[in-house]
Design brief:
With 372 residues, the chain is of the alpha+beta class. The chain is built from twelve helices and 14 strands.
């Protein structure tokens, strides 16, 4: 194994690639012309495993120009070289190359009747998220897998933010606030009881269906009452989320709750801005040692039109990094999937608003403990 070399393919490898393709596959083969095109495409990666002059395997990775996705389009290992970990090394190299190119997620397809490959991908942390029927030339089905590959490397520029997952479907706001407060005060309680206490203080009573969520006014008040500095940036004036309920009595309750929040805000030093928080303002807050909570629409992330609170932890030239408190265990998500989640700055500008008519942009910035 020590003589195996991983490297980028070059034009001189074309004949060996075509020969390996014909040796490994009887259908769905990549043509010589296609291999040549992939070799000439600077955005994509064609990676090889070789031993001297012998080609042992390859991995073709396509990089989307429009998204932050990468895709393993094809991978092949010479049958005589299987069982030596070559496929695993090629996948790992593919992930490194894609992450270095700023891709967040790696996706791939695998035949439903290929248990060995499926087991490898699962062992490497890939989770199934869909399938394609009649995908291959022989009408075989494909399973779709993906794995997050880009991870934030904490530095001294921004304070570390502990992660806390919401324990109910309606407490994303309290969970996001708990993370922000814990980043500023190591003594902050990170418990379900504290999560529910904040929800009781900050809930709007009604929203969509089921339990009400939390609005920016209530979350800012909850932070203030726990001794933290707080400011709220809300693009719309008046009671929020009224268009999510149809019942006039429920609308009136939302208005009364809003009136109560506004009264209580007037008794504090909380700054209330009726402007959206810009990316520059977000970065300024982080650099000043404060932690922002942002209300987002999850449509861009999971095709769900639900308002959802997240904690902003860091930023760089390409990404805004979030702690998303919601973990979908049934879909195979883990804590690692939701910590320092990188969101492209352009995408973040789209998701950090909720609703279609006069979209709401809301943020709460939590600052260090006040001198009491």
């Amino acid at each position: 194994m020590s003589s195996i070399v991983l490297r980028q393919a070059v034009s001189d490898d074309l004949d060996a690639l075509v020969a390996l393709e014909h040796h490994c596959f009887s259908e769905d083969r990549i043509s010589r012309r296609s291999f040549r095109r992939f070799l000439e495409m600077p955005r994509d990666r064609l990676l090889l495993a070789s031993d001297g002059n012998t080609l042992l395997g390859y991995c073709l990775v396509l990089m989307s120009a429009a998204t932050r996705l990468a895709r393993i389009y094809s991978i092949a290992v010479n049958p005589g070289s299987r069982g030596k970990g070559i496929g695993e090394k090629l996948v790992q190299m593919a992930e490194t190359e894609a992450a270095d190119a700023g891709r967040i997620v790696m996706r791939l397809e695998v035949r439903e009747d290929n248990p060995g490959a499926i087991a490898l991908y699962k062992r490497l942390g890939y989770r199934q998220f869909g399938s394609y029927r009649d995908y291959y030339e022989d009408h075989g089905d494909a399973l779709r897998f993906e794995r997050r590959i880009l991870f934030y490397k904490p530095g001294a520029q921004f304070p570390p933010v502990p992660y806390y997952p919401q324990t109910t479907e309606f407490t994303c706001g309290p969970a996001a606030l708990i993370m922000a407060m814990a980043a500023l005060n190591q003594q902050q309680s990170m418990t379900t009881l504290e999560e529910l206490k904040i929800w009781r203080e900050a809930t709007t009573i009604f929203m969509l269906s089921g339990h009400g969520g939390c609005g920016p006014h209530g979350l800012a008040l909850a932070a203030w009452h726990r001794g933290f500095e707080a400011s709220a940036w809300i693009s719309n004036e008046g009671a929020l989320f009224k268009d999510t309920v149809r019942n006039d009595d429920k609308k009136r309750v939302l208005e009364l709750v809003h009136e109560g929040f506004m009264h209580d805000l007037g008794q504090t030093g909380i700054e209330l801005h009726h402007d959206p928080l810009t990316l520059a303002g977000l970065e300024q807050a982080l650099l000043g040692g404060r932690i922002p909570l942002i209300l987002i629409s999850t449509w861009q992330l999971n095709r769900s039109r639900v308002p959802h609170w997240v904690t902003v932890c860091a930023m760089d030239d390409q990404f805004v990094y979030l702690h998303d408190p919601e973990i979908d265990v049934e879909e195979g998500e883990t804590v690692a999937d939701k910590q320092y989640l990188p969101i492209d700055r352009r995408v973040f500008s789209k998701i950090s608003r909720y609703g279609s008519n006069q979209p709401l942009q809301a943020a709460v910035i939590v600052g260090p403990k006040r001198a009491l």
